[in-house]
Amino acid sequence: MKISKKVAGVEYAIRDIVLAARKVEEKGMKVDYLNIGDPVQFGFQPPDNVKEAMINAIRNGENFYSSSEGLKELRIEIAKKENVKGLSISHDDVLITNGVSEGLDMVISSIVEEGDEVLLPGPYYPPYASYVRLHGGIPVEFAVDLDNSTPDIEDIKSKITSKTIAICLISPNNPTGVVFNESSLKKLVEIANQHNLYIICDEIYDQIIFDQKFVGIGKVAGDSPVIVLNGFSKVHLMSGWRIGYIAFNQSSKLDALRENLPKLARVRIASNLPVQHAALESLRGPQGYITEFVSELKKRRDLVVKRLNEMPGLSCPNPKGAFYAFPKIEDNKFGTDKEFVQKLLETKGVLTVHGSGFGEKYGSGHFRLVYLPSLEILDSAMNKIEDFVS
Ligand SMILES: Cc1ncc(COP(=O)(O)O)c(C=O)c1O
């Protein structure tokens, strides 16, 4: 039967690689899964008050379709959160989605047409390129200095053409942990405005940050066409519940998008209502669990980065946020990063993701691992990687 070319080309390296791990397990080898960025699969859980909120919502009969834009109280709380970060919006500027993934799909579907170019930070979280391609667009990667966490402004300028319609930012970034500072964000907004580009900023890791204070795009947005994507999968440990949101800056340049994008929200009816009650509780309730989670992650990051940098042939910049390390393979006797990752899996049972899965241009020659497992498991995985590269 017929299958569309656009869907046949979709890839998601982070999950695709799991098939290879299953084969290794079938042969009887234990696999350390360092591929998936889901804190809940590594022992972290949403707090009880948040779980209770969802259970109570179900018990109280909140089991119907919510409004397409989402629960008003939740949108009010989200607007407050984003305003603390620097935006100046109301609940009317917030649309609840089934995860950032759905929000991204809606935004890209609404703006990209055949041949349009979208700038992405190199390397990037894969669905950004997938959704752009799905709609006939062309993802264009720009360089980022991973050691200094700065975007290469000259490189961005050189890549803007008459076809460029948007720039996507992911800060803190997956897979690199890069966090852009205020001055970089300011420069990015300036360039985008000069060229009339949408600015799409993914801040899903906004509170998972280790060495500096987080600055969101809202702080420097002014009246620029900024669209913030955010969600509850990472900071709030609700990955399996699938909830996120789109926040639109107050900008007349977003008028057409704001009129049209909600049609997509109506077509898909609504996002999960009991989960919206849980998300509301996660914003209103005590926030201590986030501090504990982040301080635990910092210990894991410090261990992993130290160990990786002591290994021959690997170098790893210090990730400033999120929960990923992205070491460079300085001397790869296997040729490609994909083969390196495959051999590491087959011989040592450590599952990572090849860097080129996050963009060929800047991701190649690296691999990504998550530092969500316990210190003991990470230490043992580091021993195996050290053995392998030695
Ligand atoms: C940068 C980034 N955005 C979005 C997502 C997915 O978000 P959600 O679970 O809200 O769909 C991820 C998950 O790894 C991510 O790393």
From TrEMBL:
<dbReference type="GO" id="GO:0008483">
    <property type="term" value="F:transaminase activity"/>
</dbReference>
<keyword id="KW-0663">Pyridoxal phosphate</keyword>
<dbReference type="InterPro" id="IPR004838">
    <property type="entry name" value="NHTrfase_class1_PyrdxlP-BS"/>
</dbReference>
<comment type="similarity">
    <text>Belongs to the class-I pyridoxal-phosphate-dependent aminotransferase family.</text>
</comment>
<dbReference type="InterPro" id="IPR015422">
    <property type="entry name" value="PyrdxlP-dep_Trfase_small"/>
</dbReference>
<dbReference type="InterPro" id="IPR015421">
    <property type="entry name" value="PyrdxlP-dep_Trfase_major"/>
</dbReference>
<dbReference type="Pfam" id="PF00155">
    <property type="entry name" value="Aminotran_1_2"/>
</dbReference>
<keyword id="KW-0808">Transferase</keyword>
<dbReference type="InterPro" id="IPR015424">
    <property type="entry name" value="PyrdxlP-dep_Trfase"/>
</dbReference>
<feature type="domain" description="Aminotransferase class I/classII large">
    <location>
        <begin position="34"/>
        <end position="376"/>
    </location>
</feature>
<protein>
    <recommendedName>
        <fullName>Aminotransferase</fullName>
        <ecNumber>2.6.1.-</ecNumber>
    </recommendedName>
</protein>
<keyword id="KW-0032">Aminotransferase</keyword>
<dbReference type="GO" id="GO:0030170">
    <property type="term" value="F:pyridoxal phosphate binding"/>
</dbReference>
<dbReference type="InterPro" id="IPR004839">
    <property type="entry name" value="Aminotransferase_I/II_large"/>
</dbReference>
<dbReference type="InterPro" id="IPR051926">
    <property type="entry name" value="Ala_Aminotransferase"/>
</dbReference>
